[in-house]
Amino acid sequence: MTTQTTALMAPAVITPPASRPTFAAATERIAGRALLKYFRTPGLFIMGMVQSGMFLFSFRYVFGGAIQAGPAGYVGFLVPGYVATIVLFTGGGIAVAVAEDKTQGLTDRLLSLPIARGSLVAGRTVADFTTNAWSIVFTAALGFAFGFRLPGSAADGLAALGLCLLYGLVFTVVFIVIGLFAPNAQAAQGMSMIAFILAFISSTYVPPASMPGWLQPFSKYQPITPMVDAVRSALTGGTQDLAIALIWSAALVVVFAPVAVVRYRRT
Fold first, then answer.
1. Contacts of 92 (CB under 8 A, 6+ apart)
2. What is the mean pLDDT of residues 64-75?
3. pTM above the 0.85 mark?
């Protein structure tokens, strides 16, 4: 009897709560979840590659014969600009995915966990930048298949590719913010179309000097033109517009990354 009473009166053993995941661990898990969803949808791979090839083919062979763009020919002008801005075409998928996570309740579930809100942005950025990097490298390979050749050394080519990857990272954050502000996936797709305007009214596809005089200032001073021109210059070992491109890249991250964190908190 005494033994039973003692057992009943003994204090219960309380298991301490699991420790809060570190920022790095939370970022890794969120990125892994996003990438797993991407890899389980083969159509995303296929359609991304088909879209890149169709656009590049059209500009190279349909419009290329009618556009004069220097001694290297239109292919030498087009491919660096197209690779540098491919993220503006694939970024709509990022915005849609973020909006879908929000409307399907996944974002709410993540916000209920004891993790840093910054890890939500970081994890999403790592995952989407990984897919963007694949698109950039694949598109660059298509450019060589369509007749592009390096005007400088291999090291210059790698430097230009590095700039393209940097832009991919920067605009990944921008499209995450678009997805967070969009009320649904359809709206996110429509809001992402603003990127098309920046891409076309720039030096990506035609020299700005060929545009109407009233449109040239916008083309010159918006962020895409110095970014593209910096890539073209890097291919020959130059640094034209490199400082401006890096300043624009830093400014976009400084502005949009905090907005993404705050928006997650208020979702």
1. 175, 188, 189, 192, 193, 195
2. 76
3. yes
Separation of alpha carbons 123 and 125, rounded Å = 5
| pLDDT band, very low/low/confident/very high, at 199 (cuts 50, 70, 90) | very high
- pLDDT higher than 80, residue 8: no
CB atoms within 10 A of CB 184: 12
The pLDDT confidence band at residue 65, using thresholds 50, 70 and 90, is confident
